[in-house]
Structures are given as C-alpha cells and as structure tokens.
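Hey, I'm writing a tutorial for new members on how sequence and structure tokens pair up, and I'd like a real worked example in the thread rather than a made-up one. If someone can provide the structure for the chain below, I'll link this post from the tutorial.
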Amino acid sequence: MLRDLLQSSAVWGVLLTLAAFALGTWINKKTGKAVFNPLLLGTIFVILFLRIGGQDYAGYKASAAPVSYLLLPATVSLGVPLYEKWDLLKQHALAILAGILAGVLASLGSILLLALVLDLDMVQYATLLPKSVTTAISMDVSAALGGIAALTGAIVILTGILGNLLAEPVCRLFRITDPMAKGIGIGTAAHAIGTSRALEMGETEGAMSGLAIAVAGVLTALLCPVFAAFLA
C-alpha cells in the first residue's frame, strides 16, 4: 500500500528529503550537539525509510531529482560572499592559491600513502582519491580513473560532515586564528558541507571557503590522474 501511494506521487522523493532534513535540523537544535548534523541525520532517516518501506534507491533518486538540480544554483550562490571580499582576494591572491594547492596536495598525498600502507588496489585507490571535493567533480573523476563513483559520493559526504564537525575544534587546537586561513583550510578539506560551517564562523571564512571549493575542485581534477599513475 505504501509503495502504491508513493508511486502515485511524482515528487515523494522531494518531500521525503525535505522532511528528513527538517527532522534532522530539529534534533540538532533541540540537542545543541554538533554531532547530530542535520545532513547526517537526514541521510540516515532517508535510508531507514527506503529500507522499511521497501523502496528502491533508483525510484527515490528519480523522484528527488529537483533537489539535486537546485544544488547547482545553491553552490553558485557561495560566490556572493567571495564577491563581497574581492579586494581581500586580490590583495592576497598568491598566498590564497598557495594555501589551496598545499591542501590539495596534502589530501591526495595522504590517500596515496594510505593506499601504499594498506595495499589497496587501483579501484579502491581511485574511489578514495578525490574525497575532499564536491560530488559533482569527485564522482566524475573517480569514474574516469576506474573507481566506484557511488561509493566516492558517500565518502565525500562523510568527509564534509567530519569537516563540518571538526572545523572549529581543529582551529582551536592548532591555534589558527586568521579568518582567511580558516576558510581556505575548511573549504579545501571539506567542500560545501564544511563551507556551511565556515559561513557561520564569519564572512571572510565563508568567502575564502567558497573560493577554495572551486579552486580545489579544478586542481584535484588535474592532479588526480598524476597521483593515480603512482599506483598504476
């Protein structure tokens, strides 16, 4: 009966996604605990609903397609804080680019080291390699290198959630106080999910994090084939 009801609605995936995220947000606000991340909770709720209701993921994905489409303009909107800090960007352009490049190299290098230590095969390595950039880039890069794109998407989301949760504690631990350094580090390591935390920390942090998403994505796409060759 539930399956027939859902199949009769063309947008049940959208409603389920919004309801799951709203519930996650409510729990996050009620508990006040960062570990109860709305995105993480929402993902768990959707998985449980599909599992209990006997719904297949393909049907949910098709029904929730409008949400995925709206992620594109939402990501582009991250450029608004960057525009407001344009003078700051021009003044420190070289340092900003160097910081993002260092972050990308650290991310790719750590995965290469992990692959060598754990003796990962090429499929596993390619799946993990683009973990720190947005899914729109990481999944395509993973597929092109022979990885499992769907698994890469899940890893990217988990990376972003961890970055969102740990951003402020890590900055305090290592005494990182400069807003630009915070934003660049968060955006490079934890893409858009981390950037949502950076925006809460301040305008400069959010602007630099938004810039880091785009630049880190381009650099990762260019450098991943180079790093993949080390294990080929």
